[in-house]
C-alpha cells in the first residue's frame, strides 16, 4: 500500500542521511513528493490515496527512484525532472540549478511593497534565468510586461525554453551576449 511505501522511502532517506532543501526540508516530505510523482498524483491527493495498492510498474519505479536518490544523493528534482515554486511545476535537469527562490513568494504579491505601481511595469529582466521559472512567474504576475530572460548558459536556455507556457507569450529568451547590443540597452528594466 502507498502508506507502506511512504514509510519505507522515509526510512531509507533517513538511513542514507540525505540532505534536503531542493523542494523539501525533511525525509517524509521528500518521500511523499517522490511517490506523488511515481503515481502522477497531485500533492493534495496523496493523503486520501494512502490505501492505494501500487501496481507492479509503480513499485519498480518507486524502488528505483528511492535507491537512486540514496545512492547518488542527487536532488530528487533532477531524478524526477520537476521542481515546484508555489503552485507552479517546472521542468529541471542538471543543466540548471534547482529553483528555490524566495522571489517567487514576492511575485505572488506582485513585489509589494517594493513596487509602488505594479500596473505600470512594462519591462523586466531576469538575469541568469536558468530554468526560466522566475521569468515565467514574473510574466504571470505582470501580464502587461515584456520579460527579458537571459543566461550565459545555452543549455540552461534550452531548459527555460521547455518551461515556457503558451499563456506566457511576453518572454524573450536570449544569451547574455544579447544584453551588450545597443537595442537591448534601450529597455526599461528592473
Explained architecture:
Helix 2 crosses helix 3. Strands 3-4-5 form a three-stranded parallel beta sheet, covered by helices on one side. A two-stranded antiparallel ribbon has the order 1-2. It is elongated and about 50 Å long. Helix content is 41%, strand content 12%. By secondary structure, it is α/β, with parallel strands linked by helices.
Short structural description:
By secondary structure, this protein is an alpha/beta fold. It is built from eight helices and five strands, in the order ααααββαβαβαβα. The chain has a three-stranded parallel beta sheet with strand order 3-4-5, covered by helices on one side.
| Topology, number of strands | 5
Radius of gyration: 19 Å
Span from first to last CA?
50 Å
Low-confidence sequence ranges = none
Shape: elongated
User: Percent range for helical residues?
Assistant: 40-55%
Helix/strand/pairing class, anyone? alpha/beta
Mean pLDDT: 88
Annotation field: number of helices:
8
Sheet with the most strands?
3 strands, parallel
**Helix and strand sequence:** HHHHEEHEHEHEH
The fraction of residues in strands falls at: 5-15%
Q: Record the strand order, biggest sheet.
A: 3-4-5
Features:
190 residues; alpha/beta; 3-stranded parallel sheet; 8 helices; 5 strands
Amino acid at each position: 500500500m502507498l502508506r507502506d511505501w511512504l514509510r519505507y522511502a522515509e526510512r531509507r532517506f533517513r538511513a542514507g542521511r540525505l540532505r534536503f532543501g531542493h523542494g523539501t526540508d525533511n525525509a517524509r516530505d521528500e518521500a511523499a513528493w517522490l511517490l506523488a510523482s511515481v503515481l502522477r498524483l497531485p500533492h493534495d491527493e496523496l493523503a486520501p490515496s494512502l490505501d492505494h495498492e501500487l501496481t507492479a510498474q509503480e513499485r519498480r519505479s518507486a524502488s528505483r527512484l528511492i535507491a537512486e536518490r540514496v545512492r547518488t544523493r542527487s536532488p530528487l528534482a533532477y531524478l524526477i525532472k520537476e521542481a515546484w515554486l508555489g503552485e507552479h511545476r517546472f521542468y529541471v535537469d542538471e543543466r540548471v540549478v534547482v529553483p528555490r527562490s524566495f522571489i517567487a513568494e514576492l511575485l505572488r504579491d506582485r513585489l509589494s511593497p517594493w513596487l509602488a505601481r505594479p500596473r505600470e511595469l512594462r519591462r523586466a529582466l531576469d538575469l541568469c534565468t536558468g530554468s526560466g521559472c522566475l521569468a515565467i512567474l514574473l510574466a504571470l504576475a505582470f501580464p502587461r510586461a515584456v520579460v527579458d530572460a537571459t543566461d550565459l548558459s545555452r543549455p540552461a536556455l534550452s531548459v527555460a525554453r521547455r518551461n515556457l507556457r503558451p499563456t506566457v507569450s511576453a518572454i524573450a529568451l536570449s544569451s547574455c551576449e544579447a544584453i551588450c547590443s545597443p537595442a537591448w540597452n534601450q529597455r526599461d528594466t528592473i
